[in-house]
Write a structure and sequence with these properties.
The complex is a heterodimer of chains A (360) and B (184). Chain A has 360 residues and is α/β, with parallel strands linked by helices. Chain A contains 12 helices and 14 strands. In chain A, helix 1 runs parallel beside helix 2 and helix 10 crosses helix 11. Chain B has 184 residues and is of the alpha/beta class. Classes of the chains: A alpha/beta (360), B alpha/beta (184).
Chain lengths: 360, 184
């Protein structure tokens, strides 16, 4: 039987990466994700890997860039302000089509925000490209310890498959919550050879010694852009992932991701026990966004409630998917039980919101 | 379906999170799903600290709950907090050595366990949390005391940890005994 252990979400990130064969981590400590570099700094040297604590997040992302060019599985993790510092490098990774996994354990923003408190205030940043130039990164949003562990493995696979940065987004609640995980290895199928990787000088057995800027490798700048456009279109066609829970027979569809989706699932159970016909739609890929599936689910249910611990960010994509066909309501961070530290939107508060909507 | 949920509230540094984590750790031996969520955002030693534990044979939805069915209060302010939040019909276990207040709500059942006093008698105030955990496990039968003792064995290994391991085990059993013979 596969070993089953109780670990925090941050630990599941690190273990999932190592399970996927990642041996190289470059990062800078920031709450609430510091347990990830802490674990990597202890474990990677034991397996012949390398851990480097950079001088800042701007440094980490370019270490990832350089490391990624060798074709090895490389990652970094950070939290919101750190991700902002990585924005430029992310855009460069996308431009040069360098596979890498970037984890964002979100803390409340804007600005310095609060490290010891949950929030989902980076949705727009991670889904719309936090760097310049109109690139996309696949964004995976797990909602449990096991899913964090599994999606970390998927993230490395997708990064290799599509050659580019893949992001995994969690938050304070998911990072600190401890749940049992099975240490299973997932096989997603074969991957193409990394012909492009810099593997050293020819006399040392390598193939290439230079990497040409992507803009000059596709016979013209427009050809390069068309290649990226086609790549993103293919990702949209094939990589959309979501989970539905009692969503095919409900009169109110709750849409939520990550920790809020777990809370909403609790609310669906509570509501169902009290005669409320609630369902849950949980996007697992935030980009590509499950536009059609949400539109279909929303039409069936007749109305939507978005629950997210932010000012209202995911709701923009839900509204764009639903296109005004049914009403879309929002329960945002004002649903927290506490105005100070540790404020949380509880499932009971979601039920209150549903009852308010039912009263009209 | 077997399901247990518990909130533990008290002061940082007194082992609020420790007993929650220990319960979840021991719980994965019995339950398919277990969850431990520490919500200590602004609170380290001396500040307010709370955590949630859930044990279940079916998938756990929300990792947080506003109105728990069961709670442990280790300080006066934790008692006020939990009394206000608890679900009707719930059980509230109170360290009556350090909390003189009584629960006013009549729709919840309070269990006054002199945890700190018993811990001092056994050898150290720091084991008050284990007395309360023992009382909880006896009350709910969520898991066996043996599993908790095994989790303690795993956590406190080596000769130097032996005295604290023994103290913790004694405290667990003391709490279980107090609850088994509890008369309101």
């Amino acid at each position: 039987m596969t070993e089953r252990i109780l670990v925090a979400g941050n630990n599941a990130v690190a273990r999932g990466a190592i399970q996927a064969g990642c041996k190289y981590f470059f990062g800078y400590p920031i709450t609430p994700q510091s347990e990830i570099p802490e674990y990597m700094s202890k474990e990677l040297p034991k397996i012949g890997g390398i851990y480097v604590q950079s001088e800042s997040e701007s440094g980490s992302i370019y270490m990832v860039y350089g490391g990624g060019l060798t074709g090895k599985r490389i990652m970094t993790s950070t939290s919101s302000p750190g991700l902002s510092l990585m924005a430029e490098g992310l855009s460069y990774l996308a431009e040069q089509e360098i596979p890498a996994v970037i984890v964002d354990v979100v803390r409340m923003g804007p600005g310095i925000g609060t490290g010891g408190q949950g929030a989902q205030t980076d949705y727009l940043q991670v889904t719309k490209g936090c760097g310049h130039g109109g690139y996309h990164a696949i964004v995976l949003a797990p909602a449990s310890g096991q899913e964090i562990f599994d999606l970390m493995q998927l993230a490395f696979y997708l990064a290799d498959k599509y050659r580019g940065p893949v992001m995994v987004i969690t938050d304070f609640i998911l990072g600190q919550t401890e749940e049992p995980i099975e240490l299973r290895t997932l096989d997603f199928g074969p991957l193409p050879e990394k012909e492009w990787a810099l593997t050293g000088k020819e006399k040392r057995g390598g193939k290439r010694v230079t990497h040409v800027a992507a803009f000059f490798t596709y016979q013209g700048i427009l050809n390069y852009q068309m290649k990226l456009i086609e790549k993103y279109a293919e990702i949209k066609r094939t990589e959309v992932r979501y989970e539905k829970y009692l969503a095919d027979d409900c009169d109110l569809l709750i849409v939520a991701y990550g920790s809020s989706a777990r809370i909403a699932r609790g609310a669906v159970d509570m509501g169902r026990a009290n005669g409320l016909k609630l369902g849950l739609f949980r996007p697992i890929t935030l980009w590509p966004f499950p536009v059609e599936a949400i539109a279909e689910g929303a039409s069936k249910a007749g109305r939507v409630l978005v629950v997210e611990d932010s000012q209202g960010q995911l709701v923009e994509d839900v509204e764009a998917s639903v296109k005004g066909r049914v009403p879309v309501h929002l329960l945002g961070m004002w649903g927290r039980h506490n105005v100070g530290g540790g404020g949380i939107i509880h499932p009971e508060r979601v039920i209150e919101e549903v009852e308010k909507l039912n009263e009209g | 379906m077997d399901y247990h949920e518990l909130m533990i509230a008290g002061t940082g540094g007194r082992g609020v999170l420790l007993i929650g984590r220990l319960l979840a750790q021991a719980g994965i031996e019995t339950y398919k799903y277990a969850l431990f969520f520490p919500n200590y955002a602004p609170a380290m030693r001396g500040g307010e600290s709370e955590c949630t534990v859930m044990l279940s044979d079916s998938a756990i939805g929300s990792p947080v709950i506003f109105k728990p069915a069961c709670a442990i209060a280790m300080t006066g302010s934790a008692l006020t907090l939990m009394e206000n939040r608890m679900r009707s019909g719930g059980s509230l276990i109170v360290d009556s050595s350090v909390i003189s207040d009584r629960v006013a709500r009549e729709d919840i059942t309070a269990y006054y366990i002199p945890a700190t006093e018993k811990a001092v008698y056994l050898g150290g105030t720091q084991a008050a949390n284990m007395v309360l955990l023992g009382a909880y496990v006896e009350h709910t039968k969520a898991i066996s005391l043996d599993l908790l003792e095994k989790a303690l064995d795993n956590r406190l290994q080596g000769e130097s940890k032996k005295p604290i391991l023994e103290l913790n085990k004694k405290a667990l059993n003391e709490g279980a005994g107090l609850m088994a013979n509890y008369e309101s």
